[in-house]
């Protein structure tokens, strides 16, 4: 109810006197003496002239609330809450005395903000109120505030004080503007005109991403930055100083968006490996600053600046970087003097170490001469020591590897920028299922390389991954720096072949040791032993110098900690280690480690590097083992075997064909034991039978815990499959994945026919809200009914609902939202009650196992199927079960009839199927009730009724189908044929782990069809 509408229900003659009583009347004048009169001194229940107490304020509030309830029309809230609303309004009115403001300030706030402050000042004033009462209280508060502000404006001192305040404010504003003009010289009109040209130039100049070092015939080599840019993360060590009484805590690593580098610091040193996105971030900051207009960006690549010798002064910034625009004289200094500059200094690692020292001096001189600007300096991690600029106030950030979600986003944006969306899905599937590719794609450079090569080859990565790794190595080791115009750094310039030779020896040493890190001293020893045989590297200096050049420029090594080296990607370590093993003829070493999953990629790359004869030897060694995993490893190696003996290829494929695709659930389980390697070998769905498709989805599901992204990529291919078993497998494996991602990628695309979606966690329940409606839902665990209803996007679409193991279910009234519900299953919901509230629903089937109060069942007159487990109250079934319901199926389980027996059963003459699993022996009276059911044709009996539970069972000639459940195999059923002469179908369900001899039943029922199952 808006305040104006509320005003229609509350007489102004009532509110105005209330406000007048709340405030004391002041004298005339402008209120210039002493200090401004605060509200605490104006209200009549605070201050020196108090004449109202809390009781009187409550009485006034009560009159207002009572008048609103007595007014014509529908009351604004339940009358039973009148006292609570009065208390809430009283608390808010009393909060006037706690506001630290005067009347002029209050009027400036407006009535809504004043009301909000009163609500904040009287916290919990609306606790326990209904929605209508809370809404009335808020509206009444705003209405009162309207009158309060009107009262203030009519006070004799208000107008005079307002004029005084305005005069003072204008004087202060004029003084501040004069000071600002004095401190900031008026910009020259020429400066403004130039910036109107310069800023768009910067935005256009840097709004492109370029990949250096790859050959692309039909693909562009530049893409719009706005489309392809991906927000990366950086880490920073956050120092926390302990209080005197606290123990000191270690520094914390905090992840922040890289583009927010200046949010808390004006000087930032950003470190990142080769290709991690440093230059792209510089471009993004320049473009966004140029378009926002709040800062003037200068992009200063150091490799360009140092060529001119002396590093430039501000006046020469644009000339040094080749900008064709000529600024007005002194423009750059005026920009920096005003603190409006954004200086993006890129590539500290791309200049020799001697130049780095003078670069620091140049930076510090500029910072001291022009304080207040923002500075970003980028570098590879090992170019300078960690505290190189710490004393000068530079805050260090380190770009982190891309996460899986980042990779997916990059691929999507890259293909959008390249206008090649048709290649996107196939590349994403490859990155998800092929682990070595996924490990390679951890920075924008490598992701961009893969995207470009994949598009260049029309949706296929290079034949065999060796070609991809060769292209990546060439790009990183030679072409990228050369095409960016970079020469030698620190006097050491290693050719591509020399770098590869050194790197592969380091890699093989790591592979043999089973590690991914190496001491710098150990690495220097390996390089030192290698230098005599690598002539081009021997002349570059000692082992430490050459290793330092490798570390700085190759882009393949990094230093994760002081004194430690590692490869930036495990993939490169395996690739280069395999290359060296093949060159040295270490095939026996490779085959001997084939059982070690850490060697899988090494062996596959060894097959890629080997000659045809060596490939055949290595593959035969894998097949000779006879295990499924090594057979599949041999199959995976075929991708890399360009030339191979046809007989060896045929043998590998024949052996693998017995494993893939799996043709049963058991085969799928055995296949999954081979590990994540299997995921990239799984076929389909094209060309698979329904059974094989089901086996493939089972295998991928079992591998989800080890390789969730790869497993999801496989399952995603089957989301349009029509087979019910396949669709059930896709639904049933949801718990192995992140809830929302799997729902989006797989579940929301499934055909829902005969399919039930099961939600076992809060995350899964929340994911339901983002999917198309499901008609069959199951919720497992303690979900509140209100949460379930709110999570379902279209409650009217739900026809089947199962609630399992849910102690949170109490009153069932919330289920009335499911207006189309025809089947409800409650399993172990011990507090469930209020079944009578389900009466308006078109409920035809109800299954209850261990519920609470069943009294309301009598109201459910539409039931055709009813299944009950647990004791029933009353003496007869008609005391509890719905008498008017046209029941056709009735199941009575353990302890259900302990008190009632089957008394009253014959009332439901519509029964066609009766299933009994009682714990007590059936009496003659019970059997008589059964015998009086004219349409009963199917009887289900539990094994616990044999041999004594049947009691005086009469002949029942109308029974034509018999189902026996939970049989161990030795029960005496010899008396059944004489009592059931009309049986033509016998279904025997064995207990778990038991086997039943159907021949015995076939002999007992020679004219019946006998079958066996589990149940």
- Uncertain segments are 1-12, 29-35, 238-252, 485-489
Strand order of the biggest β-sheet: 13-14-15-16-17-18-19-20-21-22-23-24
Count of DSSP E strands?
A: 24
Radius of gyration: 40 Å
Helix content: 40-55%
Strand content: 5-15%
Number of helices: 41
Structural class: alpha/beta
Assign an overall shape.
flat
What is the terminal-to-terminal distance?
A: 60 Å
> Taking all residues together, what is the mean pLDDT?
82
Q: How would a crystallographer describe the biggest sheet?
A: 12 strands, parallel
InterPro entries: NACHT_NTPase, NNH1, P-loop_NTPase
Pfam families: NACHT, NNH1
Protein name: NACHT domain-containing protein
Organism: Streptomyces griseicoloratus
Short description:
This protein is of the alpha/beta class. Helices cover 43% and strands 12% of the residues. It starts with a helix and ends with a strand.
Task: Summarize this structure as a short list of keywords or feature phrases.
1015 residues, alpha/beta, 12-stranded parallel sheet, 7-stranded mixed sheet, 41 helices, 24 strands, disordered N terminus, NACHT_NTPase
């Amino acid at each position: 109810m808006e305040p104006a509408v509320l005003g229609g229900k509350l007489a102004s003659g009532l509110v105005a006197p209330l406000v007048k009583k709340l405030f004391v009347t002041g004298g005339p004048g402008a209120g210039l003496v002493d200090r401004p009169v605060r509200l605490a001194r104006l209200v009549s229940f605070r201050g020196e002239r108090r004449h109202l107490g809390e009781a009187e304020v409550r009485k006034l509030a009560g009159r207002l609330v009572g008048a609103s309830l007595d007014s014509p029309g529908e009351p604004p809230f339940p009358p039973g809450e009148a006292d609570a609303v009065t208390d809430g309004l009283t608390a808010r009115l009393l909060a006037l005395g706690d506001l630290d403001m005067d009347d002029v300030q209050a009027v400036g706030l407006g009535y809504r903000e004043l009301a909000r402050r009163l609500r904040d000042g009287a916290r919990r004033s609306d606790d326990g109120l209904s929605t209508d009462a809370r809404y009335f209280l808020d509206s009444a508060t705003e209405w009162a505030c309207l009158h309060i502000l009107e009262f203030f404006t009519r006070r004799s001192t208000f107008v005079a004080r307002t004029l005084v305040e305005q005069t003072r404010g204008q004087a202060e504003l004029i003084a501040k503007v004069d000071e600002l003009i004095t401190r900031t010289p008026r910009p020259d009109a020429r400066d403004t005109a130039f910036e109107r040209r310069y800023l768009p130039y910067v935005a256009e100049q840097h709004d492109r991403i370029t990949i250096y070092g790859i050959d692309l015939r039909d693909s562009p080599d530049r893409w719009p930055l706005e489309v392809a840019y991906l927000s990366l993360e950086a880490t920073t060590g956050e120092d926390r100083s302990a209080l005197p009484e606290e123990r000191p805590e270690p520094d914390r690593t905090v992840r922040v968006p890289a583009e927010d580098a200046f949010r808390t610091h004006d000087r930032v040193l950003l470190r990142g490996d080769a290709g991690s996105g440093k230059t792209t971030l510089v471009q993004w900051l320049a473009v966004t600053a140029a378009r926002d207009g709040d800062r003037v960006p200068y992009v200063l690549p150091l490799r360009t600046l140092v060529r001119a010798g002396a590093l430039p002064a501000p006046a020469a910034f644009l000339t040094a970087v080749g900008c064709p625009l000529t600024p007005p004289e002194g423009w750059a200094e005026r920009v920096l003097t005003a603190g409006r500059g954004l200086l993006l200094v890129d590539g500290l690692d791309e200049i020799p170490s001697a130049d780095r020292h003078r670069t620091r001096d140049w930076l510090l001189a500029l910072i001291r001469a022009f304080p207040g600007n923002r500075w970003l300096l980028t570098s590879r991690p090992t170019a300078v020591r960690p505290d190189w600029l710490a004393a000068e106030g530079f805050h260090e950030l380190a770009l982190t590897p891309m996460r899986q979600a980042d990779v997916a986003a990059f691929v999507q944006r890259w293909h959008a920028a390249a206008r090649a969306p048709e290649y996107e899905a196939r590349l994403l599937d490859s990155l998800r299922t092929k682990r070595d590719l996924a490990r390679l794609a951890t920075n924008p450079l490598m992701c961009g390389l893969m995207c470009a090569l994949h598009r260049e080859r029309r949706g296929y990565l290079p034949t065999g991954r060796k070609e991809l790794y060769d292209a990546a190595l060439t790009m990183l080791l030679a072409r990228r720096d050369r095409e960016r115009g970079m020469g030698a750094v620190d006097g050491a310039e290693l050719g591509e072949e020399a770098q590869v030779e050194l790197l592969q020896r380091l890699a093989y040493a790591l592979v043999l040791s089973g590690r991914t890190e190496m001491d710098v001293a150990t690495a220097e020893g390996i390089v030192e032993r290698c230098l005599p045989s690598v002539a081009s590297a021997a002349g570059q200096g000692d082992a430490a110098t050459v290793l330092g050049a490798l570390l700085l420029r190759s882009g393949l090594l990094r230093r994760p900690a002081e004194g430690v080296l590692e490869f930036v990607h495990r993939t490169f370590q395996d690739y280069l280690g395999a290359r060296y093993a093949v060159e040295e003829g270490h095939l026996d070493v490779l085959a001997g480690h084939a059982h070690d999953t850490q060697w899988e990629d090494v062996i596959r790359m060894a097959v890629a590097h080997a000659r045809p004869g060596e490939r055949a030897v290595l593959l035969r060694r894998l097949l000779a083992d006879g295990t499924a995993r090594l057979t599949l490893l041999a199959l995976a190696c075929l991708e890399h075997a360009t030339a191979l003996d046809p007989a060896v290829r045929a043998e590998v494929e024949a052996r693998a064909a017995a494993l893939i695709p799996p043709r049963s659930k058991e085969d799928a389980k055995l296949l999954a034991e081979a590990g994540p390697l299997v995921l990239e070998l799984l076929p389909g769905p094209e060309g698979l039978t329904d059974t094989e498709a089901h086996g493939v989805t089972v295998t991928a599901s079992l591998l989800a815990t080890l390789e969730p992204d790869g497993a999801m990529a496989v399952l995603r291919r089957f989301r349009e499959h029509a087979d019910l078993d396949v669709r059930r497998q896709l639904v049933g494996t949801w718990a192995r994945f992140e809830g929302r991602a799997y729902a989006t990628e797989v579940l929301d695309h499934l055909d829902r026919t005969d399919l039930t979606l099961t939600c076992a966690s809060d995350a899964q329940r929340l994911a339901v809200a983002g999917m198309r409606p499901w008609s069959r839902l199951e919720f497992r665990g303690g979900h509140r009914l209100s949460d379930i209803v709110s999570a379902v996007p279209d409650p009217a679409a739900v026809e089947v609902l199962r609630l399992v193991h849910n102690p949170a279910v109490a009153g069932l009234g919330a289920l009335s939202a499911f207006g189309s519900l025809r089947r409800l299953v409650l399993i172990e919901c011990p507090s469930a009650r209020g079944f009578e509230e389900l009466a308006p629903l078109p409920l035809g089937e109800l299954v209850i196992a261990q519920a609470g109060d069943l009294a309301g069942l009598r109201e459910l007159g539409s039931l055709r199927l009813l299944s009950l487990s647990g004791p029933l109250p009353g003496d007869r079934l008609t005391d509890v079960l719905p008498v008017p319901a046209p029941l056709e199926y009735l199941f009575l389980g353990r302890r259900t009839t302990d008190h009632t027996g089957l008394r009253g059963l014959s009332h439901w003459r519509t029964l066609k199927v009766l299933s009994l699993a009682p714990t007590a022996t059936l009496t003659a009276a019970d059997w008589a009730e059964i015998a009086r059911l004219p349409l009963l044709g199917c009887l289900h009996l539990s094994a616990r009724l044999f041999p004594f539970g049947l009691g005086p069972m009469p002949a029942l000639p109308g029974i034509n189908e018999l189902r026996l459940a939970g049989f161990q195999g030795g029960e005496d059923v010899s008396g059944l044929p004489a009592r059931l002469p009309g049986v033509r179908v016998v279904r025997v369900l064995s207990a778990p782990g038991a086997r039943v001899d159907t021949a015995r039943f076939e002999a007992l029922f020679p004219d019946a069809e006998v079958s066996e199952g589990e149940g």
